[in-house]
Known about the structure:
The protein is of the alpha+beta class. It has 16 helices and 21 strands. It is globular, with a radius of gyration of 25 Å. It starts with a strand and ends with a strand.
Amino acid sequence: MKRKLKLLIDKMRRLALISTCVALSACQILNSAEELAATEETSTTETGPTLSFEAQRANDPQASIGAQEHPKILKANGGAYNNKQLETVLAVIAGNLVEHSNAPDKSFQITILNSPTVNAFALPGGYLYVTRGLLTLANDMSEVAAVLAHEMAHVSANHGIERGRQQKANDIAGRVISEVVSNPLAGKVAEASTKQKLVAFSQAQELQADAISIKIIGKAGYDPFAAARFLESMDRYTAWRNSSDDKTDDLASSHPSTPQRIELAKRHARTQGPNGTGEKGRDRFLQGIDGIIFGDQATEGFIRGNRFSHRKLGITFEVPQNFKLTNKTDAVLAGGPDQMALRFDTVNKSDSEAKSPSQYIQSGWVNGLDSATVKPNNINGNTSASGQAEAGDWQFGIEVISYKNKYYRFILAAPRSAQGIPKITSDVANTFRTMTSTEKKNLKPLKVKIKTVKSSDTIASLANQMTGVSKKVELFKALNGLSNGQRVKAGQKVKIISD
């Protein structure tokens, strides 16, 4: 049973009250914030004393949209993340922001989502969402204030209404293209052109929300340079996650490039005062995130380097070192060289009448299957089968393993020109095995831990204390907002990751 944070802003008393209710539980991963923003609308006609969240929602003609989408948001993001001390910190931040916004009578419900992704967004009716992944990356209250104020700005500027209208126009254009343009290539070019217009439109929205939010946090007494700092941390985190030294943007394509946003954020911040203006609230915030889960949680399985392990299912497997694993809601994905892409997922045996892996492969779910390639096998004591398929310009290697009440499927896609795909698929599948009781016991989620820097500590020595992560120095810098050339100081509090 999980809890969601319900935040009531009372203008008269200037207090933030927290109440709890039952939240749904499920798995992680959510559509982009821009797609959700397409439904954002808000009512600005509310007057008089502050209403409760429920009363305000009843009076808001657009609140039904948020109420309808809220359960879907929870389901797509692992439900609500229950952390009382962190909820209290968010309540204080949001209460201060709303009091100094253009709508001080507005009430909001804030939900911390149990997702490792770095994301935040808003829905009509005062629904605000921030992921634990984003909170892990932030370094103080002012940075979180910048994120929440940004989402509030989207609502106050009616960006959802505008983007919704633009999206409808784009959909109509797409239908015209598909029905009128007979040349497939010309159609694709025209469609790309209309999408690019929508991208540029969304970029303008993001920059406008940045400008509004920086004014709000400055008025609320927070450090206005926090927005730029958080964008810089996000840039470093993206580079670490992509296992690249290239500090390119990792946000959705509808956002402006991170360097552009950082420079504009600094420019807006200077209008609020010199660098160092306003409160940061670093110590209180770090206390709030001490012990928060970093990355995947036990119910979703864990990625440790090139290995995936799932304690509940009791299985584990490895991919080659030049593949990068990603844990999704319904599958584990791995990208490899030469456009190779691996998918690992499960299917309940009750969903099919096939009695063996060979029969299951040939039961109709594989398009372009070459039945002559289907062969039975045994992988670490489990019955299995392999096969190959072709479709268009792609070839597929397939391995299905039967274990308990499920079929475990490995599907490797690659261009037709790629060599050795059946062997690569087989090599990965042959690493599949059941976990020992000791392995399952030792498999724990990673957590953020707050440490006080000693005089003998360096960035390298602190980074080496982290476990379960790669490129430790790069991650340490990203998590602690440290740029190249900066050092840690004795007495400073920093974040590390360990189990």
